Amino acid sequence: MIRLTPERTAAGTSYLAAGDGPPVVFIHGVGLNKEMWGGQFVGLMPHYRVIAYDMLGHGASALPAPGTALLGYADQLLELLEHLQLPAATVIGFSMGGLVARAFALHYPERLQALVVLNSVFNRSAEQRAGVIARTGQAAEHGPDANAEAALSRWFSREYQAANPAQIAALRETLASNDPQGYLTTYELFATQDMYRADDLGSIQAPALIATGELDPGSTPQMAREMAERIPHAEVAILHEQRHMMPVESPRLVNQMLLNFLTQARRLDNQAQGIVA
Questions:
Q1: What torsion do the CA atoms of 185, 190, 194, 198 make, to the nearest 10 degrees?
Q2: How many CA atoms lie within 13 A of 117 on its CB side?
Q3: What is d(CA 267, CA 31) in angstroms, rounded to the nearest whole number?
Q4: pLDDT category, 226, cuts 50, 70, 90?
Q5: DSSP element (H, E) containing 42
Q6: Whole-angstrom Cα distance, residue 157 to residue 215?
Q7: How many CB atoms lie within 10 A of CB 210?
Q8: CA–CA separation, 44 and 259 (whole Å)
Q9: Can you give the pTM of this predicted structure?
Q10: Which of 9, 81, 88, 211 has CB atoms 3.0–4.6 Å from 13's, for a disulfide?
Q11: What kind and span of H or E run contains 239?
């Protein structure tokens, strides 16, 4: 088991960092925290400097100011890179973290080495949009764990839930322990910003991977394909029989996909710089 000591930036972002090599930063989803990336730390640490942090309003990080926009979440990542003295990094965002990663890629392209968007949303249908807006209202009225049972059923296979009751219970507790206002501010962005600067995605020049699970009901294969069509150098990966929380449920599968992509991205970067491997 890996035991890492959380550190903190001057602006109040809590993060974990381990390993040596090119930096790779992971961004979690709404209601979760940096601890979700344990499987990725194990798989990528031998090759990369792996960094995971708590989004605004989550875990041990600072709360977002009222009305904070998606750019404010991208600015949090920028402050983390500056704290770590990293000129650029590969950014991997899951679900809401994928929206943050996209915003970071659009606003700070010079700080991006490669982009990975996992199980994230794009161009919701009217029915999908109505569903997530309704869940936002329930969270506003009843708190962060208002939809916990339904969320866990969407996120994990029934088999995984049955085989890992302690982990599922811990995730349920994580959801319930979120700061209500921090959670709601973030969830409102998650619910409304799936088309954030969609017409500008063609400006992203870094290597990109857009991936989701075949059985992810909220971040569907169609969404992944439509998003990738907007990004010039994007690959698409649809993982067979995987649901939303595939980085947690199937870390080896996800890690192999990430390592393959990151190896190819480094090769392309070396070629662009005239470096012979």
A1: 50
A2: 32
A3: 35
A4: very high
A5: helix 38-44
A6: 9
A7: 27
A8: 7
A9: 0.96
A10: 9
A11: strand 234-239
pLDDT in tens, 115-143: 999 999 999 999 999 999 999 999 999 99
Compute the residue count for the chain. Answer: 277
Rounded average pLDDT over 251-277: 85
Query: H or E element: which one contains 89?
Result: strand 89-94
Contact call for residues 115 and 90 (beta carbons, < 8 A): yes
Name residue 238's beta-bridge partners. 212
Per-residue model confidence (pLDDT) at position 275: 65
3-state secondary structure of 48: coil
Give the sign of the dihedral formed by CA 25, CA 26, CA 27, CA 33. Answer: negative
Structure tokens at 168: 């599922």
CA 191/CA 27 separation, integer angstroms: 17
Using CA of residue 59, residue 64, residue 68, residue 72, what is the dihedral sign? negative
Show Cβ contacts of residue 22 under 8 Å, excluding neighbours closer than 6 positions: 48, 49, 89, 90, 113, 262, 266
What architecture (CATH level 2) is domain 7-272?
3-Layer(aba) Sandwich (3.40)
Listed residue (33, 31, 28, 43) closest to 6, CA to CA: 33
- Would you kindly state where each structural domain of the chain is located, as residue ranges? 7-272
How far apart (Å, rounded) are the C-alpha atoms in residues 163 and 236?
A: 30
Name the residue with tokens 């049972």: 149
Tell whether the model's pLDDT for residue 1 goes beyond 90: no
Beta bridge partners of 208: 115, 234
Please say whether the beta carbons of 116 and 125 come within 8 A: no
Collapse the DSSP code of 47 into the 3-class scheme (helix H, G, I; strand E, B; otherwise coil) and give the result: coil
Show the tokens assigned to 246: 């595939």
CB 88 within 8 A of CB 21: no
- Span between the terminal Cα atoms of the chain, in Å: 34
